[in-house]
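In this supplementary section we document a worked example of the pipeline. Step one takes a protein sequence of length 282 as its only input; no multiple sequence alignment statistics are reported here. Step two produces a three-dimensional model, which step three serialises into structure tokens for compact storage. The input and output of this example are shown verbatim.
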Amino acid sequence: MNHAPQVMQIDIIVTGACALVWLALLLLWRQQRQRSAFARVEARLQAGLSHERGSRKLVEQALTDTRRQVCHLSNSQQSLRDADRRRIARDLHDDLGQHLLAMSFELGALAAQHPELAAALHKVDERVALTLRSMRSIVRDLQPEGLREGLRGAVEEQVAQFSRLSGIACQLDAAAIAADGRVEGGMDKVIYRILQESLSNIARHARASQVSVGVTRAQDRLSLTVRDNGVGIAIAADGATTARRGNGLRGMAERVAEAGGRFDVATTPGSGTALTMSFPLQ
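The serialised model returned by step three reads:
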């Protein structure tokens, strides 16, 4: 009878230990179920993320292909326009130029035959000579000869000529253009024309004393920045330019858009203007 309490205590201890073991096993089982559930959720999330990444890559590839097609179409259109310019320049030079020269010779012959008309004929001949010079200038603009030596040389010559004729100090950083002056993607003519228009716009409207031109390259894009310290551009509430200079900017923006590029204007009235044009090279 004296051992009964001890036996009961042992039974209680064993029962408590068994209960603790069962409780521990239950907790382990629930924890394992939770881990399995978390694993399944994580697997579904990973699958969703993988699908999202795949879809994003497809969209990015489609966007890249579309941009490449747009650039190719733009380059083809630019080539057609360049061919038209060369044809027009050749026709002007060969046809109109010859007629103007013949007219000048005939005026000289008439002046020799009729001395009393020499003064009047001389004025007409001066007008013909002025027309001939204007025609040759138009021919040069239609068919830029400078690009025969590559974009880099053409840009350097253009900047030097701008500084010499306008009296505006101009700095150039064109190290991003290859040593041979060539730019892939058919962008050399576009960049040449854009720079030409930018400098002409500055000379006419900016009233600047300093200009800087920079060409930079990042991966598959080439950027042209033209910065001046002139009067800047007044911007209306709707974002439109209010000065006459805005007409030139719209023309440049259209030319950049046709080439598949991006056109940005940063300006403060009285503190100058910075034009940045970024072009794809593929």
